[in-house]
Amino acid sequence: MAPRLFGTDGIRGTANVEPMTAETALKVAKAAGHHFIRGDHRHLAVIGKDTRLSGYMIEPALTAGFVSMGMDVVLVGPLPTPAVAMLTRSLRADLGVVISASHNPYEDNGIKLFGPDGHKLSDSVEREIEERVEGGLSERQAAPALLGRARRLDDAQGRYIEYVKNTFPKGVRLDGLRIVIDCANGAGYRVAPTVLWELGAEVVPVGVDPNGFNINDGCGATDTARMRHEVVANGAHLGLSLDGDADRVILADEHGEILDGDQIMALIARTWQQADRLEGGAVVATVMSNLGLERYLESIGLKLVRTQVGDRYVVEHMRRHGINIGGEQSGHIILADYSTTGDGLIAALQVLGAIVRSDRPASAVCRIFTPLPQVLRSVRVNGGQPLETDAVRSAIREGERRLGSGGRLLIRKSGTEPVIRVMAEAEDGDVVGTVVNDVISAIERAAG
User: Fold this and answer.
1) Which of 69, 146, 167, 361 lies deepest, with the highest CB count within 10 Å?
2) Do residues 212 and 106 make contact, with C-beta atoms less than 8 angstroms apart?
3) Same fold, 6-155 and 374-447
4) In CATH, which superfamily holds the domain spanning 259-366?
């Protein structure tokens, strides 16, 4: 069996190197088109992207693949991932596609697929598409008279801006608030500042000058130093950092102190519980979320349900069990009342609504619980199976012993990058740091 194309968040890799080549993008579009063509109606695919240079290569390849299968294509240009999911439903499309590698550097790119309901594809559908890519599809192409057409949707940004604004609490505005918004030189660089400005905020924009190479470079949700600096320097009330495709957000209070996805979920869960809006009596997060979040939710009568890493697994559990709040510590926040996938801007507006209504500073409103000491580090690996070696297994066993029954040690291979992530948490921060460093050192030695 060939290696899987799809990881935890679509297809991802180095641009112009397999699988992120124009040739493979063409095949994926043909395979996905074949899967989603049902019935005699004119079929439609929506394609959006972030600001990476390689998007100019992948976008026409995908378009050609869909058109060759008889699907029409609507191109929306640089737009957040959740906007494409929303437009897929709004336009009654059969398929949505986002060309993005999210928080990765510009050298990488990726392909995310959404079904007609705006949700990411299941593992089984992804595998069917992979099998079609491997098996070939030339005999299933459309006849000349049945080829699709492609066009651009000029008002795509405006549609998303209005949709997001309508999720903000009615009768509330952001007048008097100074907000730093870091768009990572990515897909949200136009829409995010506009939403905040139209709601009345004084906006301090950061990372809004994309050039094809600077996405996530010293900015964005995975590098918040600049945003935090601008918050303090400008006397801002809050800072927001989106990632490259704007489906995640990390916040900073007025002191420049970080508020991660766990704090955001806690705040929204409490707010919605008080407003009798929270469904399912629980919040869905991943194994990476801090134990402090779990303890806090228990204290207010809610459960924390954990899934494997990947926002689509969070969404799948939410859908199965009727839960309307979920997300990841990294800032993917899924609010099922509004969106089918993580939406950094919508999540930030829920936080801003709570701040405005409380008339207190962000540090008082948003710091909901005290997290346990937690350390997460990544080590890059180039092939091999270092986790299978006796030395690494021994280091893991020793780490688990030192953390004790009240601690956690998690080691996993990333589904989006060639790295292994090591996370530990416990009451004793010194022990946590030592355990992570020891396991990382063992992996580095085993990996050569």
Assistant:
1) 69
2) yes
3) no
4) Alpha-D-Glucose-1,6-Bisphosphate, subunit A, domain 3 (3.40.120.10)
- Phi and psi, residue 300, nearest 5°: -110, 15
Q: Is the pLDDT of residue 213 over 80?
A: yes
Report residue 109: phi and psi, to 5°. -155, 175
Give the tens place of pLDDT for each residue, 256-289.
Answer: 999 999 999 999 999 999 999 999 999 999 999 9
Active site residue 102: yes
CB atoms within 10 A of CB 44: 21
Q: What is the pLDDT of residues 396-425, one digit of tens each?
A: 999 999 999 889 999 988 877 788 999 999
Pick the CATH number of 6-155 from 1.10.630.10, 3.90.1300.10, 3.40.50.720, 3.40.120.10: 3.40.120.10
pLDDT band at 4 (very low <50, low <70, confident <90, very high): confident
Name residues whose C-beta falls within 8 Å of residue 316's C-beta, 6 or more positions apart in sequence.
122, 307
Catalytically annotated residue among 54, 68, 102, 330:
102
| pTM summary value | 0.91
How far from the centroid of its chain's Cα atoms is residue 52's Cα?
17
